[in-house]
Every structure is written in C-alpha cells, then in structure tokens.
UniProtKB/TrEMBL annotation:
The Muconolactone isomerase domain, residue ranges: 3-90
Gene Ontology molecular function: muconolactone delta-isomerase activity
Keywords assigned: Aromatic hydrocarbons catabolism, Isomerase
SUPFAM superfamilies on file: Dimeric alpha+beta barrel (SSF54909)
Pfam assignment, any one: MIase
EC category name: isomerase
Keyword Isomerase: yes
Family matches, as InterPro entries: Dimeric_a/b-barrel, MLI_dom, Muconolactone_d_Isoase
Catalytic activity entry: (S)-muconolactone = (4,5-dihydro-5-oxofuran-2-yl)-acetate
Self-association and partners: Homodecamer.
Gene3D superfamilies associated with the record: Dimeric alpha+beta barrel (3.30.70.1060)
Source species: Dietzia lutea
Protein name in UniProt: Muconolactone Delta-isomerase
Length: 94
C-alpha cells in the first residue's frame, strides 16, 4: 500500500469545443467515480474558489499512481503536484 496526496489544477482551454469539453468532463467523472468505488481514490475535495482538487490515492506503487493519473480524461488539461505520504511516528491509531 502506498498513499499519495495529489493536487490537480484544471486548466481547460477557453477555446475548446463545448461538446468536447462536456464529453471529456463526463468521462472524467465516470473514471474518477470508478476509482473511488475501487478504493484507490480515497478522498476527493474541491479547493474552495478554484477549479482544483485535493485527492488522496491508496495504490500499490508510484508506477500504479502514474498510470491512473495518465488515464484521466482531463490529464492533458491539468497541472499536478504529487506528494508521497508515510505514517507519522506520533500517530496513535493503528
Ligand atoms: O473536477 C476536478 O477537480 C477534476 C477531476 C477530478 C475528479 C473529477 O471528476 O474531475
């Protein structure tokens, strides 16, 4: 198991065809909801006031995360920042 904190900033070009935009956003939603159901996309939060999200992924490896992120329909239109997480030694839960 490997946990990753990911920030995604969505930057869809203003001149993208509205139909392509709507279809891509719909595919993105379906893809993300499938990964949420699988347990791999554990958290998904909107950053207030921005077309950005903060996500937590629970995957086998950085390679798996890379594959999942590259598969996002909006991947060509996003900037991403990825941070690998490890357990804090002061945590009290198991
Ligand atoms: O809207 C976003 O933040 C981008 C992306 C993440 C999940 C989803 O459905 O779209």
């Amino acid at each position: 198991m490997a946990l990753f904190h990911v920030r995604m900033d969505v930057k869809i070009p203003h001149d993208l065809d509205p139909e392509v935009r709507a279809e891509t956003v719909a595919r993105e939603k379906a893809y993300s909801q499938e990964l949420q159901r699988s347990g791999k996309w554990k958290e998904l939060w909107r950053i207030v006031g921005q077309y950005s999200n903060i996500s937590i992924f629970d995957v086998e490896s950085a390679d798996e995360l890379h594959e999942l992120l590259q598969g996002l329909p909006l991947f060509p239109y996003m900037d991403m920042e990825v941070m690998a997480l490890t357990r804090h030694p002061s945590r009290i839960d198991d």
